[in-house]
Design a protein that fits this description.
two-stranded antiparallel ribbon; nucleotidyltransferase activity; alpha/beta; six-stranded mixed beta sheet; 6 helices; Cytidylyl_trans; 10 strands; Nucleotide-diphossugar_trans
Length: 226
């Protein structure tokens, strides 16, 4: 059986009540819940939260909240993997495939989730997670000293054409499919036994600040133009 876990704690600092803040007409978390349900790939869609209001909204949009998250898993040091492992243990042994879907992923669609799951099932891997390509060649990255003088991390690439440099990707922070035992064994996510499901950059926005939130809304409206 397949379980979708949506972590959504109540203590967001930079964007208060971020997970239930209005986003183009719906609470932000509602998009992840609806996408998970409409993908038709999960036997259960649950929200792991420590907040009663988030729990109420999650249930309103069709998710289940079978338990309230403990305080020790809701502070600034608890990881998403910690939350997923807690949910796996509490939900029982019948779930063999678990997806951690972030509450801050409104740019996804049910079809994207279904396609990602099909790839997860079709290849040999422990995890499959969303990723996207860096918008600029990371080999050209540089740092600044205390006086803003420049020093390249890799000066050997200074005069190499960008189209000749190897492409690089980063975690898109949207979803993570994994086998039950891989989650429970605390296996590293970014390892050779993991695969990446590459998303176009216009489908990715890390919603961490108020500016991010507004930018994500603009991307959402562009993506959903008829």
């Amino acid at each position: 059986m397949r379980l979708c876990v949506i972590p959504a704690r109540g203590g967001s600092k930079r964007i208060p009540h971020k997970n239930i803040k209005d986003f183009c007409g719906l609470p932000l978390i509602a998009y992840s819940i609806k996408n998970a349900l409409n993908s038709a790939i999960f036997d259960e869609v649950i929200v792991s939260t420590d907040d009663e209001k988030i729990a109420e909204i999650a249930v309103k949009y069709g998710a289940k909240v079978p338990f309230m998250r403990e305080a020790k898993l809701s502070d600034d040091f608890a990881t998403s993997s910690d939350v997923v492992r807690d949910a796996i243990v509490k939900m029982g042994d019948e779930f063999s495939e678990i997806c951690c879907l972030y509450a801050t992923a409104p740019l996804l669609t049910p079809d994207i989730l279904a396609s990602a799951y099909a790839q997860f099932k079709g290849v040999s891997c422990e995890f499959l997670f969303s990723a996207t390509e860096f918008s600029f060649a990371i080999q050209r990255a540089f740092k600044l000293d205390e006086n803003s003088y420049v020093k390249m991390f890799h000066p050997e690439f200074e005069n190499v054409r960008s189209q000749d440099l190897e492409r690089a990707y980063h975690d898109a922070g949207q979803f993570y499919f994994g086998k039950r035992q891989a989650w429970l064994d605390i296996k590293a996510m970014f390892a050779p036994y993991s695969r990446a499901f590459v998303l176009a950059r216009h489908l990715v926005c890390d919603i961490d600040t108020p500016d991010d939130f507004e930018f994500a809304k603009k991307l959402f409206m562009i993506n959903h133009q008829s």
